[in-house]
Structure formats: structure tokens, C-alpha cells
Amino acid sequence: MAQTLLMPKATAIWLVDNTALSFDQIAQFCKLHPLEVKAIADGEAAQGIKGLDPISTGQLSRDEIARAEANPNHKLKLSEPKVRVPESKRRGPRYTPVSKRQDRPNAILWLVRNHPELKDAQISRLVGTTKSTIEQIRERTHWNSANLAPMDPVTLGLCSQIDLDMEVEKASKGRPLPTAAELGATLQSAQDTERLTPSYEREEEKEREIDADAVFRKLSSLRSAPKDEDDDQY
Bias category Basic and acidic residues: which stretches (predicted)? Predict the structure, then answer.
């Protein structure tokens, strides 16, 4: 794996401020243009970037800097890393332990039922199976279809939850939004809800109307009572 310099501009700032290296040497080491290094030295570029010490990060030694300062034609070289990071291998079909291979049909059935948006290639990557097996389980032509029971592949240990979520997210991209019929009952729009009067308010209005009618009836009876008494006197 080819070594690369961490944060080239920040490293260039530190080299400009803390060494006597030429602009060309710093530019060659940091993969920058000499004019860009000059602009950094003049304070015209990378003003908001904090310098990064390449010695503390193990990418450059003091002896290498001293040799370059003594010889303007010397080209700085990255130090050998103390820890070797292995190159990531090309991912092929997922290996499934022999003890768990019997659970793969159940996991495929679970994925087919719960995540129909997943493609056969994605299911194959998750549980390490073949497209023909997936097709047989989809069409219920698998030799053991009668005994299959859907089981979560994460619970079975065939894949991780992160891998499953990533595949589902990939499959969901570009899909049309579900229609109202697919969603079933949905929430009413804000305009419709604003027109509706809460039930408790309607009850209070009804009670107020009833109380008002009762008050008017009582007033009418009070007004008519003295008149009747006067009639009795004559």
C-alpha cells in the first residue's frame, strides 16, 4: 500500500515555520506547487490552517530534515511506518461457516418477505448464497420450502445489522415514494385540521346554548308572574 502524507497543507505550514527547507523541497514533499508554498510563507494562503508536525505523526524524522537542510537538492522521504496496515481484499461472496449454512434458506425467506426491495445480488452478499437458491425460495420451489421459517439473518449471525442497513438503504435509493393507497390511512392535512373544532369546544358551546335558553325562559316567567297577580285583583 503506497504511503501518503497526512494533511499536506498543514504539514507545509509547519515546515515553513520550523525548518530552513527551501520552498521546492517542501513543495515536493507535500505535493504542492512552489508558488503555493511561497504564498503560505507570505501569509497569503492557508491562514486558517494549523500546522501539523510530521515528526510527531511519525511521517518524517529529524535526521531527514537535517539532511535536507544541509543539501538543497535532497528530496525528503517519508519515514517507514511502524505499523503495517494490510490492504483491503476485494470482497467476494460472503463466507458462511458450515454450522450456519443450514440457516441460510430461513434467512433468505426473511429477507424476501421483510425487504422485497433488496435485489438478489444484495441478498447474496448478505448471507453468502446463490441467485438460483434465492429464486427458488421466492417461487416456493425450494426442496425444503414446506419446512422453512423466516428468521432474521442478523440474529442467526449470517450478517451484521450495519451491513443489512447499508444494503436496505442502497436498495431504497431511487424508489418512488409510496402512494396514499400503499400507506393506507394517513394523517389529515394541516388545512383540514384547522377547520375542525375540537369536540370539547363543541360540547361547551352546546352547554352555553342550553343555559342561555333556560335563562331566557326563566326571565319570561318572572315577567309574566306580576301581570297575572294584577289581573286577579280586578
Answer: 192-212
- Please list, in sequence order, all residues whose beta carbon lies within 8 angstroms of the beta carbon of residue 185, skipping any fewer than 6 positions away: none
pLDDT of 122 higher than 70: yes
What is each CA distance from 67 to 19, 41, 70, 76, 214, in whole angstroms?
A: 12, 21, 5, 9, 107
Q: Describe the crossing of helices 104-114 and 120-127 by its angle, rounded to 10 degrees.
A: 140
Count of CB atoms situated within 10 Å of the CB of 119:
13
Amino acid making up residue 112? V
Taking a C-beta distance cutoff of 8 angstroms, is the pair 154, 160 a contact? yes
Dist CA 65 CA 111 (whole Å): 58
Determine the pLDDT at residue 14.
93
Question: Mean per-residue pLDDT for 134-154?
Answer: 89
Q: Let me know: does 126 contact 164? Beta carbons within 8 Å.
A: yes
> At 201, is the secondary structure helix, strand, or coil?
helix
Alpha helices in 57-129 (DSSP H): 62-70, 104-114, 120-127
Which position has the higher pLDDT, 129 or 100? 129
Buried-state track 26-35, b at ≥16 Cβ within 10 A, e below 16: bbbbbebeee
Name the pLDDT band for 45 (thresholds 50, 70, 90): confident
Tell me what the mean pLDDT of segment 207-233 comes to.
59
